[in-house]
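Milestone 3.1: sequence recovery, worked example.
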């Protein structure tokens, strides 16, 4: 049940760590996506092609679209999305990779102030 005080907007935070088994395949797929984007201006296309060729994380960012995550969800319209990708050092056994890490940020900030 919705009341006038209830916001219709929800922020969904998703963090995904992917292992790239074939960087060449990711780069080629990103280049194909860029080549197929007829709305992209030529100068932007050249920059995008250069970026995805030099950086697999950038190539992946061209392939992942937040709209694809929610387009099949009934009753939902994507209002805004932003995303980024970066190469990282990943150790699944490290406590640094706790999935609830964002929840602890506020607690850490409060302890630093107090």
């Amino acid at each position: 049940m919705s009341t006038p005080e209830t916001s219709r907007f929800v922020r969904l935070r998703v963090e995904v760590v992917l292992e790239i088994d074939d960087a060449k395949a990711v780069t080629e797929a990103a280049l194909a996506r860029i080549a197929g984007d007829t709305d992209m201006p030529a100068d932007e296309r050249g920059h995008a092609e250069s970026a995805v060729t030099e950086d697999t994380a950038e190539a992946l960012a061209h392939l992942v679209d937040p709209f694809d995550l929610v387009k099949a969800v009934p009753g939902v319209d994507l209002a805004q999305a932003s995303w980024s990708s970066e190469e990282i050092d990943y150790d699944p056994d490290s406590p640094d990779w706790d999935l609830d890490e964002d929840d602890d940020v506020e607690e850490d900030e409060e302890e630093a102030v107090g």
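The radius of gyration is 19 Å. Residues 70 and 76 are 7 Å apart (CA to CA).
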